[in-house]
Specification:
By secondary structure, this protein is α/β, with parallel strands linked by helices. The protein has two domains: 4-127, Translation factors (Elongation Factor Tu (Ef-tu), domain 3), CATH 2.40.30; 142-286, 3-Layer(aba) Sandwich (Rossmann fold), CATH 3.40.50. Helices cover 22% and strands 31% of the residues. The protein has six helices and 14 strands. The chain has helices spanning 108-115, 152-165, 221-226, 229-237, 251-263, 266-278, and strands at 12-22, 32-39, 51-57, 66-72, 78-79, 85-92, 95-97, 104-106, 121-128, 142-147, 172-178, 203-209, 242-247, 282-286. It has a seven-stranded antiparallel beta sheet. The chain has a five-stranded parallel beta sheet with strand order 12-11-10-13-14. A two-stranded antiparallel ribbon has the order 7-8. Helix 4 crosses helix 5. The longest helix is centred in the middle third of the chain and has 14 residues, at 152-165. The chain is globular, with a radius of gyration of 19 Å.
């Protein structure tokens, strides 16, 4: 993985906040916002699966003059009434506990973005990352697996498949993990963009929630996958199946455990994954 400090941040431009809205219900313990930005650069273009960098000017507590974080674009390419590119980003307001002092600190970029209001201007860079490619075969099965705000690129990807590509015949299975049903981003009572595709015969979404009542228990993504293990394994054995993964780095550990159980052994799963990666049928957006 490329370190954040190694990214080229020279391609900078500004964007205006058009709209910012909370997409988690009031009863949720977390705040996640969908932020719509109008990019002040008409030749700016991005593809599904790419990210933009957000730069927050300092000085900051740790001595750095500016803070840099990546956010995946959560929409397909479109323009505003002013014919400027528009992007959506999904931002969770974060806090961190220092391991040594026990003090709580606010996440710099997430709180900065969540505090912006319509009309405010922010500095962006990018885009970054390899675009997600849709298989040429429209009967290919697609497994989409995300944790938390990792749902953002799938919001754009699923829309692209059904609205832009069209005529999709293969299964599109979305597995989204969250602590509780209130944090099923873009899939709760506050905002459910995926209802647009529930009438598609090929689309199905599966929830993976914490199996116990304590909100900080592990998300049950592995359980959700293993419950459908036989079908998923048959999909993975099909040379047309493609897998797309998005979320924090710990999603790799969760998936390796789940798929090892589904396959029957870690060795068997490692061989299958290696074959899929060699065939460019395994795509990760991990941060």
């Amino acid at each position: 993985m490329i370190r954040l400090e190694d990214y080229d941040k020279s391609n900078r431009f500004t964007a205006k906040v058009l709209e910012t809205s909370v997409i988690t219900p009031e009863a949720s313990a977390v705040e996640v916002r969908d932020i719509i930005l109008e990019v002040d650069k008409k030749d700016f273009h991005f593809d599904v699966g790419q990210s933009v960098g957000v730069i927050v000017s300092g000085p900051h507590e740790l001595g750095h003059t500016e803070h840099f974080r990546l956010y995946t674009v959560a929409n397909t390419f479109e323009t505003s009434n002013g014919n400027k590119p528009v992007i959506n980003i999904c931002v969770r307001r974060c806090t961190y506990i220092d391991d040594f002092s026990g003090e709580e600190y606010k996440g710099i970029a997430s709180n900065y973005l969540c505090d912006r209001r319509a009309g405010d201007t922010i500095t962006l860079t990018g885009p970054y990352g390899i675009p997600w490619e849709v298989p040429e075969e429209k009967d290919a099965d697609l497994l989409l697996i995300g944790l938390g705000t990792g749902i953002a690129p799938f919001r754009a990807f699923v829309k692209h498949i059904y609205k832009n590509v069209g005529g999709w015949q293969g299964r599109v299975w979305l597995f989204h993990g969250a602590l509780t049903g209130l944090e099923m981003l873009y899939r709760n009572d506050k905002r459910d963009d995926f209802t647009n595709y529930y009438d598609e015969e090929t689309f199905e979404a599966f929830e993976a929630l914490s199996p116990r009542p304590h909100v900080y228990d592990p998300i049950a993504l592995d359980y959700a996958l293993e419950e459908r293990g036989e079908e998923i394994w048959n999909m993975l054995l099909n040379p047309k199946t493609h897998v797309y993964v998005a979320g924090m780095e710990n999603i790799r550990k969760i998936l390796n455990k789940a798929f090892s159980n589904i396959a029957g052994s870690p060795e068997k799963w490692e061989r299958r994954k290696a074959e899929m990666m060699a065939g460019k049928r395994w795509t990760e957006l991990v941060y």
